C-alpha cells in the first residue's frame, strides 16, 4: 500500500492590527481659507441688512407707536398697540384710496401685459433690421430716468405750451385749447396710466421676446399643419410653454404698479383732490401733512400686506391650474 504523507498545517501568523492613523492636525491656514468667502460677502450682507431690513423693522415699530414730530425730535415714543391700524381702518378716505389703488393696478397691469405680449410677438416676426430698431427703442425708453420721463409728460400735456393741446386744436378740436389736463381728475388719472404703461412695457416686452426665442419652431409648424390659426397657436403652444415667464412678468408688474409713487408725486402729488392718490402717496401725505408718522407707517405696512396677498392669491391660482393640466 502506498504511504500518503500527511500534510502538516502551516503555522498561523497572528493578524496584524492596522497602524493607528495620525491625528489630524488643525490647520489654521485652512480654516482661514474656508472663512475667506464669508468675509468677502459680509460687507454686502451688512449693507443689505442696514438698507433693507432695518428700515422695514423700524417702520413696523413706528406703526405700533405714538410717533409724531415731538417724538421724532425728542424720542421716547409710547407703544399704543394696534391703535394706528384701527384709526386707518375706520377712515372712509382710506378705503376709497384702497379701491383706487386696486383699480389703478388692474388697469396698468392688464394694459402692460397685453401691449408687451403684442410687441414681443411683433418683434419675433420682424427682420433683423426692424428687430434691432424696435429693441433699441425699447431699451432707450426703459433707460430713461423716472423723473425725466414724468417731466416730459408734464410738458406734453401742459395747458398752454403742450404738444397734445396743439395737436388736438390743429385737427379742429377747439375745445382742447388751453385745456387743463391736470385739473381734471379723470384726465390726470389717464395720463398717469399712460406714463406708467409707457415705462413698463419695454421691460415686459423684451423679457417675453427673449422667452419666445426659446420655443421650438417645430411646435409651430406642427400646429399650422393641423390647421391652427394664430390665436389657437398662442393659446395652445406659446402660452403653455411660457407660462412661468408670464407669471414672473405679471408678478413684477403688480409690484411695480402697486408701489408707484415717484410719477404721481412729481406730476400731481395725488391731486386734483384725491383723484390720483393711491396707498404709497396716501402714506406720504399722512406722514408729512400732519406729521403723523405712525399713521404713515401703518399705511405702508398695510400696503405691503395687500400687495403680498394679491401675489399669493395669484400664485395659488396659477399652481392650481398647473396641477389640473398635469
Automatic annotation (TrEMBL):
Residues 1-10 have a biased composition (Low complexity). It is found in: Cell membrane. Residues 98-314 form the ABC transmembrane type-1 domain. One of its GO terms (biological process) is transmembrane transport. The chain crosses the membrane at residues 35-57, 102-121, 133-158, 178-198, 245-266, 295-315. Coiled coil: none annotated. Keywords: Cell membrane, Membrane, Transmembrane, Transmembrane helix, Transport. InterPro entries: MetI-like (IPR000515), MetI-like_sf (IPR035906), UgpAE/MalFG_permease (IPR050809). Residues 1-29 are annotated as: Disordered. It is a multi-pass membrane protein. GO terms for cellular component: plasma membrane. Belongs to the binding-protein-dependent transport system permease family. This is Sugar ABC transporter permease. The lineage of its organism: Bacteria, Bacillati, Actinomycetota, Actinomycetes, Kitasatosporales.
Amino acid at each position: 500500500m502506498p504511504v500518503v504523507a500527511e500534510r502538516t498545517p502551516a503555522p498561523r501568523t497572528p493578524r496584524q492590527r492596522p497602524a493607528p492613523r495620525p491625528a489630524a492636525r488643525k490647520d489654521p491656514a485652512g480654516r482661514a481659507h474656508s472663512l475667506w468667502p464669508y468675509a468677502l460677502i459680509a460687507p454686502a450682507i451688512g449693507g443689505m441688512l442696514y438698507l433693507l431690513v432695518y428700515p422695514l423693522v423700524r417702520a413696523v415699530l413706528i406703526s405700533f407707536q405714538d410717533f409724531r414730530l415731538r417724538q421724532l425730535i425728542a424720542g421716547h415714543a409710547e407703544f399704543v398697540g394696534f391703535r394706528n391700524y384701527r384709526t386707518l381702518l375706520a377712515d372712509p378716505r382710506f378705503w376709497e384710496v384702497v379701491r383706487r389703488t386696486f383699480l389703478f393696478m388692474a388697469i396698468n397691469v392688464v394694459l402692460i401685459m397685453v401691449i408687451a405680449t403684442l410687441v414681443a410677438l411683433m418683434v419675433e416676426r420682424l427682420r433683423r433690421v426692424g428687430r434691432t430698431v424696435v429693441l433699441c427703442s425699447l431699451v432707450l425708453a426703459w433707460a430713461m430716468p423716472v423723473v425725466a420721463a414724468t417731466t416730459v409728460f408734464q410738458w406734453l400735456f401742459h395747458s398752454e405750451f403742450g404738444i397734445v393741446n396743439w395737436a388736438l386744436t390743429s385737427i379742429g378740436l377747439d375745445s382742447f385749447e388751453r385745456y387743463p389736463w391736470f385739473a381734471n381728475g379723470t384726465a390726470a388719472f389717464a395720463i398717469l396710466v399712460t406714463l406708467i404703461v409707457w415705462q413698463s412695457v419695454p421691460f415686459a416686452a423684451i423679457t417675453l421676446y427673449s422667452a419666445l426665442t426659446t420655443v421650438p419652431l417645430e411646435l409651430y409648424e406642427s400646429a399650422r399643419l393641423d390647421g391652427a390659426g394664430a390665436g389657437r397657436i398662442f393659446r395652445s403652444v406659446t402660452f403653455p410653454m411660457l407660462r412661468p415667464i408670464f407669471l414672473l412678468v405679471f408678478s413684477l408688474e403688480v409690484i411695480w404698479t402697486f408701489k408707484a409713487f415717484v410719477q404721481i408725486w412729481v406730476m400731481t402729488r395725488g391731486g386734483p383732490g384725491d383723484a390720483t392718490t393711491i396707498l404709497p402717496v396716501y402714506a406720504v401725505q399722512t406722514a408729512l401733512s400732519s406729521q403723523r408718522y405712525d399713521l404713515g407707517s401703518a399705511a405702508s405696512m398695510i400696503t405691503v400686506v395687500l400687495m403680498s396677498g394679491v401675489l399669493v392669491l395669484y400664485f395659488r391660482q396659477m399652481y392650481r391650474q398647473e396641477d389640473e393640466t398635469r
